[in-house]
Amino acid sequence: MATADPRGGVLDAAELARRLNLLLDFEEAQRGAPVPFAAIEEYVAAQGGSLSRAKWTYMLSGDGRRNRDTGLLRLLAVFFEVDERFLLEDSDVPERIGAQLALVRSLRSARVSGFAARTFPGELSPEALRRIAEVLEEESARGSVA
Q: What is the pTM of this model?
């Protein structure tokens, strides 16, 4: 395992959480099921690292301080098959992940719109359904709907 950089990752806790959650969403879209914590924990342990459920929960929630465990962040990057800079530096979302997540967001938006139409049959005008779709698209573009 790589030695830890004393500075750790430069991302604040909230940004690291956002990126980890993007990776989890991407993996779920690829696998058709959520990535179990046990799979991540086992991979990290097999590589000589350590990841507790509590630490993972804090990392995903964005609570707490910036993660300083560069070695762990590198292992997670390998697990998720992304360039380590995505978890260590202020860098762009990898193209393959961005494209897949855009598709996932639009599918989820369509499901929510369809749910609204089925839940309120005859009660929502076509204009109301269009407005719901617009709001979902706007939120999706901002990254609020994932």
A: 0.64
